[in-house]
Design a protein that fits this description.
Number of domains of chain A: 2
Radius of gyration of chain A: 22 Å
CATH class of the largest domain in chain A: Alpha Beta
Largest sheet of chain A: 4 strands, mixed
Largest interface: A-D, 36 and 36 residues
Distance between the termini of chain A: 67 Å
Shape of chain A: globular
Strand order of the largest sheet of chain A: 10-9-8-11
Oligomer: homotetramer
CATH architecture of the largest domain in chain A: Alpha-Beta Complex
Number of strands of chain A: 12
Helix content of chain A: 25-40%
CATH superfamily of the largest domain in chain A: paralog of FGE (formylglycine-generating enzyme)
C-alpha cells in the first residue's frame, strides 16, 4: 500500500456520524411544519421553529467554520445578527421577543442554509479536523439537541394558542389504557457521595466538576406523580390554599388564575389536554406534565412529602443504574409507568423538578470566550430539573444532566417525583 | 318574447361587477406574500394579511349569506370566532392582539375559503338578490377596500421590523427626480356651507347626514408638506422643543424617542425610508408620510400655520372640484406634486390630518344591529384624516370620506397640508 | 389736600381684595388636614394638598414677584423645582407621579412659605403695581381657585383609599330628604349664536375668542341626572351591554371592572357613597357624581338621548340667564333639584359632561411665554365639562367656562344633563 | 413567710426586660420623624415608618394578647386589616403597595396604640404568663427588631427621593479619615462542619436544624470591599461589560441604567452618597453599601474571586469567634476596618451577600399556624446575606442568622466580602 496515499486518508471523524444523525433529526422534526407554523413566536420564552433551525446552524458557522475552516465565508452577513441567541461576545442580535417578526428568510430558505452549512462541516470533518474543532462540532450537536426539544415544546405552545387545537402529528393508535401501579418508596442511606460529570463522554460545563457532597438518608418514590394524583390535588382545593404555596408562587397563581396544569381543559365535566397530537382526553395513569416548580412544590407539600435535591436524584439514578433510552421513540405524550418493582421513569417521560436552585458546583469556572456564556450566566433564579422527557432526543440524556428553568415556567415537559427524609 | 321567461331572467346585479373586481384586487395584493408573511402580526394595531383576507370574507358570510342565502351553511364553524373583528353583536372572537397566533388555516386554505364564499355570493347575486342583500354586498365591498389599504400598511409595518428590509414588490424604474413646486395659499371665503354625504352613491354612516356648518374665511396650501420641509423641521430641532407640541404628544416623543417620521433611517449622513419597495433613498420632493397627528400639529405650529378642519378641507375639495383617481396605479410610494397652479394632491398620495376630532355629525344616529357598530363606537379620542392615499383602492375615495386614527398612530400613509386663518 | 401726599397714596389695587379672599379660602380648606393627609399622593392624576398649597404660591412668585417686585429673592431655590407643575418654559421639575415623595417641607413649613409670599404680594399691590402685574395677580387667583377644587377632589380620592373612610369634615345636619322633580325638556331654536368669553371680566384664554357658531334646534333637560336614575341604569345591566358604549369605554369597563360610579359601595343590599363627609347613604334624589365621559355617554344612549354640545349648553345658560352662586356654601355633597319650573342646577352641583372634545375656538392663539402653556397644549383627547360643582369656589364659575378632562376620569364632581335633537 | 403570698408573686418574666428595651428603641427611632415622614411609602418594597410601628404592635396583639390574655379586646377592629403584613392565616389585609395610603390613624394615634398594647403586654407578663406566651413575646421582640432595621432603610429610601436630601439625624462630628488596611486572605480547611442554630437562645425557624455540611478548603477576605475598590470597578467599566454579569443582572443593569451603587451621586467630579445623615462625601475607606447581589457577584468576577457560601461564612465566623456588637452605636453610616490583623467587620457594618440561595436546611419543617408563614414561604428566588449591619439593633445578630433578599434589591445596607477556592 502506498504510504503517501495512506497518509492522505484522514482518520474517520468521531463527530461526523453524530453530526449527520443530529442534523437529520432536526429536519425530521421540521417536516410537519408549514412556513407560518415555523415562523410565529407565541411568547417571549419560546422561539420560532425556523429560528431554532437557523440558530443551531449559525452556531456551527460561528463556533466551527469561522474558526477552523480556512477561507469560509458566512452564508449571509445578516444571519449572525438574526440568529445569535444570547452571546454578548459575538455581537448584537435580534431582540429575543422579536424573533417572530422575521418572515423572511422563509422556511425553505432556512433549509437551504442548513444544507450549505452541513456540506461545509462535512467537508471540514472529512478532511480531518483538529481535536478542538471536533470538540466544537460535538458541542454544536448537543446544543442542537437541546433546541430539538425546545422546538417541540415551542410548537406545542404555539398550537395551544390556536382555538382549532391543531395536531403537530396525528396520534399513533391508542395504547390500551391501564392503571398506574401504586407508588412505593425506595430508601437510600446518607453519607458522602460523588456527583457530577466525570469527564468520560460529553457533558456541559455546569455538570462538573465531579465532587463530593453530603446527603442525609432519604426515600424517593419509584415512579412519577400521575395525572390522577394531580386531579385529586385540584379537587382538594390545592390551587386555593395559600399555605401550600411559596409566596411568589401564590402571587403567580392569583395573577394568572392558575387552577390546573398548563394545557388542561375541562369541557362538560371531562378533562382534556392539548398535546402534540392535538386535544386528547387526559390519561389519568400517565405522569402529569407542564407543571411549574411552584406547582410541584405545592403538590409535594400537600402530599406530605418534598421534592428531591438534585444530588439525591443523581445518586439514586447512578446507584440503581437507571439509564436513559438510546433509541428513537415516536411518542409525543408521556405514558404510564410499567407495573414492575424498582425505580421507574427516571428518563424519557417528563423532566423532574428538584428543590435545588441552579448554582455552580464547587470549583466550577466559566470557560473563556463565547462558550463561557453557555450556562454560568444563568445561575440565578432557576431550579434544576433532572432526568429527561419524551421530547429529549435519544443520546442526549445522562444522569449528570442539569436542566434548569425559572420556577414559574410550565411549557416544558416538566413533572415531578416525590421524596422524603428517612 | 315570453313574459314568463323574461321574469325568470333576473335583472343584472349592480353589485356583482363591484364584488368581482374588489375580490380580485385582494388576491392581487396577496400575491407577493408567503404563508409566513401573511400570518405574523407585527403589533396589536396591525393584523395579519391572512386575517384581512379571511375577515372580509367572513363579513360576506355573516352579513349576506347567513341572512339572505337560504340554506347557506358557514364554511367552518370556527371561522366566525377566528375572523370576527369587533362586532360584539356577533359573538365572541379571537382577541385582537392574538390574531398572529393562527398559523393554521394556512394562506392556501384561506384562499380556498375565499373561493367558496365568492361562488356563493355570485350565485346569490346572479339569482337576483333583494335590494337589502345587494346593499350589504356593496357595504362588504367597501369594507374590503378599507382592509386592502390596511393590508398594505400592515405588511409595510411587518417588513419594517425585519433587519433585512425586504421589499413587498420590487420598485418600478425610478421616475426622474424633480423639485416640488413652491407651496401657495388658496383663499376661501367664510359662511354657511354644506358638508357630508348627500346619499347619492355609497357612503358610510358617519359621513352623513349632510348638514350646514359655519366656516370662517381661511387659506389652504395648494400642495402637501414634503419630506424636504419635514427635514428642515427635524434639523431645526422640532422634535426637541416642547412648546411646539401638545402635552400628550410631547410625552409620546420622549417615551418613544421620536426624532423623525416612522420608517426614516439615517445612515452615514444620508436619509432613507423603508417602503413597500424596500429601503429607498428619501425623496425630498415627495409628500412626507407616516407622521402622527401629534407630529403634524407640531409641524404646523413650527411653520406658523395650523391644520385645516375637516369642514374646510371638504369645502375646498368640493368647491374646487378635486376628484380622487378612478384607475389603478401600481405605485407604492407617494410622488411629488406637479408643477401646475391650483389645488393638488387632495387624493391619492397620503391621508391628510385635520384638526377635527372624529365626532358625530348633527343628527347622526347609529344603525340598528351589527352594522351600527361600524363607526359610531369609535367617536372618541381619534382625529379625522381626509383625502386618500396611494394605497386606497381606486373607487374607494370621495370628498366626504372620513378616515380616523388616534393621534399617536404613524403606520398609515398619513401626511398633512397646511391651513391658516384668512 | 397736599398733592404730594395724594400722589403717595396709590390707587386701591383691584386685585388685592380678591387675592386676600382667595388665599384665605385655601387656608380654610387646609384646616382639617394633618401633615400626612396633606402629603400623600393617591394616584398620578391627583396631587398632595401640600403641593396644591405650595404650587399656587410658587405661581405668584414666578409669575408676579420675580417679574414685577424689584429685588425679590425666591423664598427657596429648590421650591421652583419642587412646585412647578408643567411649565416647560420655567425649567425642570419634580415628576408629577412623584409629588407624594416630598415629606419635607412639612405642611407647617408650606404655610410659612404662603405667609411670606402673601406679605410680598400685598406689599407689591399696596405700593401700586402695574396693570400687567395686577393682571397676573388676578390670573394667579383664578389659578389658585382651580387648585382649590382639585384639593378637595384629590383629598376625597385619598380618603377613599383608606378602609376607615375618614371624613374630611363632619357632615352638617342632614337635610330632610325629598324626591327629585320629574325632569322636563326645555326647547331651543337653532341658528347662528355667539359663544365664548366677551372680554368683560376675567376669562381663560381658551374661553375665547367669542365667535359665531351654528346650532340646530335642540332640547335640554331642566335638571341633572339623579342617583336614582343612574341606579336604574345599573340595574338594567347598563354596565354589561357593549352596544351602549364607545369602544374605548367598553374596554375600560372591562379592564377596571366598572359596575357603578366611583365611590359607590354596596353593603348588604344598600348603596353608600364615599364623600368628603365620610361614607354616607346614597341620596337617590341628588345628582349622580363621579362618572366618566364614557359612562355619561353610555347612560345617555340607554336613555335614548345624548349629551349636549358645549355650544348648546352655553347658549341655554346665557339665553335663560342661569347664574353661578356668588356666596360660599359649606356643602360637600350635591343636593337635589328644587321642585320649580325652569332650568335648574346649571352651576354649583356637578360639572356636566358635554359631547364636545376640547378644541381651540376659531382664531384661538396661544399666548407668548409660560402663560401660553396654560390650556392650549391640552387640546387633545379631552372632553369639555360645563357649569361648576359644589367644590368650585364662589366667583370662579361663569357661563363661558370650559373645564376639560380625559373621558375615563371619574374623581371630579362630574355628572350629566341630557339633551336631544328637536 | 406566707406561702400563699409567695405563690402570688410570679417569677420574673424573662421576656419583660427585652420587651421594654425593644419597644423603647422603636420609639427612639421614630423620634426624628414627622407625621408625613412616617406615612409615605416610597416603593412597594418599602413600608411607611408608621406601618412598621403599628404592624409590630399588631403582631403582639394577634400572636400574644388575643391568645393568652383572657378578655383582651383588640384596640381597633380595623387595625388587623390595616397592619397584617402577609399572614394569609390571619385574614385579609391592606395590599402591600397601598400601605402608604393610610394617612389616618396619624403617627400620634399609632403611638397611643403602642402605649395601649405595651401596657397590656406588661400586665400579662407581670402576672406570670405561660412559657408559650413568653416565647411568643420573645418572637415578637425579635420580629420588631427586624422591622427596626427596615424602618431605617425605608426612611433612607424615602428621603433619597426628595431632591432636598433631608437628614434623618444630623451627623455626629466626623471621624478623622483613615485608609482602609490592605485586604488579606484567611485560609480555612475543608471537611464536614456543623452549621445552623443549636437551640440555645433565640433563633428563627430557618436557622435550623443544626446540621452537618461538607465544605472544601477556601479563603476568605479579612475585611469588606470598600468604596474605593468599588470605584475602581466603576472606572474600569464594570457596569458596561456583560461578561461579568449574570444574564438577569445584565438585563437589570440596562433596564435601570445602573452605573454605580444606589445612593451614589456624582457632582462636578466628586462622589457623594445619600445617607441617613443627608448627602455626604463618599468615604473611600468605608465598606461599600447598597449594592445588589447582581452587582456583588459581578464585582467578585471582576476581582477574580467569588462570594462565599453561607456555610463558609458561618464556619469562618464561629471558628474564629467573631461576635456581633452588643451595645448601641449611634452611627448611621458604615466605618472603615481597623488596621489590625485577623477577621474584621463580620458584624455591624453591612450585610454580606453570599452565593447561597435561600433554601431550607435538611429536615427543615415549617411550624404549624401563622408562625409557619414566617420564613419558609420565601425560600425561592432570594439569596442569603450574613452578618449584620450598623442598622441592626444590638442583640439581634448572631452567626447563624440568615437574612435574605432578591438579587436585585439594593436599599438595604448590603455589601460584600470576597472568597476564593484554596
Amino acid at each position: 500500500m502506498n504510504p503517501t496515499l495512506a497518509r492522505a486518508v484522514p482518520a474517520p471523524s468521531p463527530a461526523l456520524a453524530l453530526f449527520a444523525s443530529v442534523r437529520a433529526h432536526s429536519a425530521h422534526l421540521a417536516a410537519p411544519l408549514g412556513d407560518a407554523d415555523a415562523t410565529v413566536q407565541s411568547m417571549p420564552d419560546a422561539s420560532p421553529a425556523k429560528w431554532h433551525l437557523a440558530h443551531t446552524t449559525w452556531f456551527f458557522e460561528a463556533m466551527v467554520l469561522e474558526r477552523f475552516a480556512p477561507g469560509y465565508a458566512p452564508y449571509s452577513p445578516s444571519f449572525s445578527y438574526l440568529f445569535n441567541s444570547y452571546y454578548e461576545t459575538l455581537g448584537p442580535r435580534q431582540p429575543r421577543p422579536r424573533r417572530g417578526m422575521i418572515t423572511r428568510p422563509s422556511l425553505d430558505e432556512i433549509m437551504a442554509y442548513r444544507a450549505h452549512v452541513d456540506a461545509a462541516i462535512e467537508r471540514l470533518l472529512a478532511a480531518g479536523a483538529s481535536p478542538e474543532a471536533e470538540e466544537m462540532v460535538e458541542l454544536g450537536c448537543h446544543h442542537e439537541q437541546q433546541h430539538q426539544e425546545l422546538l417541540l415544546t415551542d410548537i406545542l405552545h404555539l398550537f395551544a394558542q390556536n382555538p382549532l387545537h391543531p395536531a403537530y402529528r396525528e396520534p399513533a393508535p391508542a395504547a390500551v389504557g391501564h392503571e398506574a401501579p401504586e407508588a412505593a418508596w425506595i430508601g437510600f442511606e446518607g453519607g458522602i457521595v460523588e456527583i457530577g460529570h466525570d469527564g468520560a463522554g460529553f457533558g456541559y460545563d455546569c455538570e462538573g466538576p465531579r465532587h463530593r457532597t453530603l446527603i442525609e438518608p432519604f426515600r424517593l418514590s419509584d415512579r412519577l406523580v400521575t395525572n390522577a394524583e394531580w386531579l385529586a390535588f385540584v379537587e382538594a382545593g390545592g390551587y386555593r390554599d395559600p399555605l401550600l404555596w411559596l409566596s411568589e408562587g401564590w402571587a403567580q397563581v392569583n395573577a394568572e388564575g392558575w387552577a390546573h396544569p398548563l394545557y388542561w381543559l375541562e369541557r362538560d365535566g371531562l378533562w382534556w389536554s392539548m398535546t402534540l397530537n392535538g386535544l386528547q382526553p387526559l390519561d389519568p395513569a400517565a405522569p402529569v406534565a407542564h407543571v411549574s416548580y411552584f406547582e410541584a412544590d405545592a403538590f409535594a407539600a400537600w402530599a406530605g412529602a418534598r421534592l428531591p435535591t438534585e444530588a439525591e436524584w443523581e445518586h439514586a439514578a447512578t446507584s440503581l443504574g437507571a439509564l436513559p433510552p438510546q433509541t428513537p421513540d415516536a411518542r409525543l405524550r408521556p405514558k404510564p409507568a410499567e407495573d414492575a418493582p424498582g425505580l421507574k421513569q427516571m428518563f424519557g417521560e417528563v423532566w423532574q423538578w428538584t428543590r435545588s436552585p441552579f448554582t455552580p458546583y464547587p470549583r466550577f469556572a466559566k470557560a473563556e470566550g463565547a462558550v463561557g456564556e453557555y450556562n454560568g450566566k444563568f445561575m440565578c433564579g432557576q431550579f434544576v430539573l433532572r432526568g429527561s422527557s419524551l421530547a429529549t432526543p435519544p443520546g442526549h440524556a445522562r444522569a449528570s444532566y442539569r436542566n434548569f428553568f425559572q420556577p414559574d415556567k410550565r411549557w416544558q415537559f416538566s413533572g415531578l417525583r416525590l421524596a422524603e427524609d428517612a
